[in-house]
Amino acid sequence: MDAGAISRAYADAYADAAFTHVLEPGQLPELKHVVGSNNCVIGFDISERTGRVLVVSCTDNLLKGASGQAVQNFNIMHGLDERTGLDSVAWYL
Q: I need a labelling partner for 90 at 20 to 30 A (CA). Which of 33, 34, 39, 45 fits?
């Protein structure tokens, strides 16, 4: 597979995921992209030497972890938009 095919596969898989964002090929996420938010950012790169794909994802385990997930699940269970109360921008460190 080439970078375009991998990128399309990730974009298709997470197209309906409100809090998951896929970066362009060759860009890797950093904690500063997610701290203080309920987001998960995914990036990948292909090693020219080995031909392997390196996938990196970043989440803030306090918000995307137990507390944010609990609010997101509550919203879904009660017919609310899953983003209710969780649409915060990351605290860029």
A: 45
